[in-house]
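Researcher: For the record, we're logging two predictions in this thread. I'll number them. Prediction 1 follows.
Model: Prediction 1, sequence and structure:
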Amino acid sequence: MAVPVNPPCIRIMLCLKKKDEVTDEFFHDYWKGNHVKLALENAKFVDKVLRYNQFHTSPKMRAQAEEFKIPVPEYDGIAEVWVKDLETWMSIVTDEDFVRVIAPDENHFIK
């Protein structure tokens, strides 16, 4: 039997809303800059995450979507994390360094 090109995995979708007191620009810049930098410094995240994507929703995109009657989720962004299985995801988010550094950093920009 042929071996699959892509190993089985799950995608974790995290729907994010920015804190009311931060600007859209700050939210998007911080998320794709500072926050990602912390994730890439986390050995378990780097070792276990198969793929990581960010989808940013800007005010300009919302306006353009409304113009064409396209519904836009009420999120400011979506993080998509591909991992082998739920146990792998849980091992990442309960990792001591993740809990100590990455999770608290979310308080800077996410509700």
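Researcher: Logged. Prediction 2.
Model: Prediction 2, sequence and structure:
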Amino acid sequence: MTPLKEAYALINSSHAMIGIHGAALTHSLFLRPGSVFVQVVPLGNEWVAQVCFEKSARDMGLEYMEYRIKAEESSLIEKYNKDDLKIKDPVAFRGKNWSPVVMSMYLKEQNVKLDLVRFRVYLKKVYKKAKKFMDKEG
């Protein structure tokens, strides 16, 4: 089996997949209906996360979940003040203008550092849903 074929077989046999918003989440196409698919959504990426992955995941029968990061989990907090509109309300900042500058800031310049205490609580919810799927599958 080729490495690519092995990777897709592994994904297809998984009960859950978690990843940060980005092109690699297209691997979710190989999950089975009923699998839990979790998208970690960086600041300012709510709309693009929905358009790129949420709708298709639901259409494929995946159990879609989102973990939306808080300002403190974004590297943008090191560059901008917490009260800056870019951080406090990215939707209001961008308006209807998803310009190359805005896109670059939220998609390319931003890194995520998860609050593991907060994420752990979320992972318990993910596990419960995945466990239901595992039990159903037998």
